[in-house]
């Protein structure tokens, strides 16, 4: 190629480049007015290196989120219960539950049961402890509000030695409701996560709900799997709502066999809707089950009872003896679950005076009231939580606690 030709082509290329740069400059001038169109190149955009760096940072953030959310299933271990304290607990509970429907808060009935619950709880009966916290904090007795509040926190401090995860979850609820304890603002999630990691089934269920609703698309699938893991862990410990929602989620994924197992566990855990799902399943409406009219009928009966008597928190541990899953044959059934027979049956024998005195003396309690023989002063009682002290100006007690904190589910 001649030298003159090369020069000509170079000049043309330079002119073209100059025209292109001039076009870009003119196109991006703001001429004022409305409706002016500007090409994409007029706006500052990250170059390829900046985009790569941003992608790496996003991936690192996602991995950090996953690490922070990762969960290992821990099951809270329940210590053995004394036959002697269970005599007190069962006697009080039978009367307690049978009065829940006709009774009213503060009618005086529950005050007569306090010595039984108090003496049993002081001797290490965690079921009596949890039930006593409920009837005191929810206003069923005539115990003055401040005194009830102090006693509840003393009970929960005692519960920490037996069921630390449950006690931590209840403490979280008291903080949320402003019930005599305080914590830094917005710390409820930290308390919830701590209780779940320690093994609280209720905390695991609530945490699963919160994890599922985090607004973060990049971790969507990871969080759904984590939600199922939390549901499963809580379900295996007796949390009925966790069983139900695990079953619903698995059913939506077409994992029908797993869903049936989750609902079955949910019925054992006392969830009426889990029973209804299985009833619909055996009617041929859900879960890819072979229709079975008798199984559907039995699940409907169970569902109705669990729903109608939800305030008693019934469970169905005897489900295998009533309506086992196929291919197991159906046994004879009188139409009642074991819990129902117990509640409707003869009242357990009243604990003897000798047993009451023995257990009261062991715990240094007044046998007539179940209270300590030497009453603690209010400042001493207020030291139940050194890390989260009772406020010097405790907030007014709510009429009723939030539904999650009524902890109706009796520990089983």
Automatic annotation (TrEMBL):
It comes from the Bacteria. Residues 389-403 have a biased composition (Polar residues). Residues 368-412 are annotated as: Disordered. InterPro entries: DUF6396 (IPR045653), TPR-like_helical_dom_sf (IPR011990). Residues 286-373 form the DUF6396 domain. This is DUF6396 domain-containing protein.
């Amino acid at each position: 190629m001649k030298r003159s030709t090369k020069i000509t082509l170079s000049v043309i290329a330079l002119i073209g480049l100059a025209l292109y740069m001039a076009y870009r400059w003119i196109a991006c001038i703001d001429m004022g007015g409305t409706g002016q169109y500007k090409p994409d190149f007029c706006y500052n955009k990250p170059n390829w290196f900046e985009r790569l760096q941003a992608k790496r940072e996003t991936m690192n953030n996602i991995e950090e989120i996953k690490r922070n959310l990762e969960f290992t299933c821990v099951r809270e271990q329940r210590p053995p219960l004394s036959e002697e304290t269970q005599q007190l607990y069962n006697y009080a509970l039978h009367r307690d539950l049978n009065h829940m429907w006709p009774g009213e808060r503060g009618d005086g009935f529950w005050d007569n049961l306090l010595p039984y619950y108090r003496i049993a709880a002081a001797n290490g009966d965690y079921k009596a402890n949890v039930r006593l916290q409920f009837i005191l904090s929810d206003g069923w007795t005539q115990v003055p509000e401040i005194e009830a509040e102090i006693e509840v926190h003393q009970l929960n401090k005692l519960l920490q030695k037996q069921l630390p995860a449950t006690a931590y979850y209840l403490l979280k609820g008291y903080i949320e409701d402003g019930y005599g304890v305080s914590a830094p603002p917005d710390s409820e999630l930290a308390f919830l996560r701590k209780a779940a990691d320690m093994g609280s089934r209720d905390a695991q269920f609530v945490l699963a709900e919160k994890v599922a609703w985090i607004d973060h698309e990049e971790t969507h699938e990871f969080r759904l799997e984590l939600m199922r893991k939390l549901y499963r862990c809580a379900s295996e410990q007796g949390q009925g709502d966790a069983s139900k929602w695990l079953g619903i989620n698995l059913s939506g994924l077409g994992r029908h066999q797993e869903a049936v197992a989750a609902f079955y566990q949910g019925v054992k855990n006392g969830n009426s809707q889990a029973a209804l799902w299985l009833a619909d399943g055996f009617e041929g409406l859900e879960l890819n089950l072979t229709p079975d009219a008798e199984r559907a009928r039995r699940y409907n009966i169970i569902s109705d009872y669990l729903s109608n008597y939800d305030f008693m928190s019934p469970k169905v541990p005897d489900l295998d003896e009533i309506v086992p899953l196929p291919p197991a044959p159906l046994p004879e059934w009188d139409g009642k679950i074991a819990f129902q027979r117990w509640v409707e049956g003869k009242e357990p024998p009243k604990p003897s005076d000798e047993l009451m005195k023995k257990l009261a003396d062991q715990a240094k309690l007044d046998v007539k009231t179940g209270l300590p023989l030497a009453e603690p002063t209010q400042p001493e009682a207020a030291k139940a939580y050194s890390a989260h002290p009772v406020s010097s100006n405790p907030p007014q007690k709510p009429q009723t606690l939030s539904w999650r904190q009524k902890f109706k589910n009796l520990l089983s």
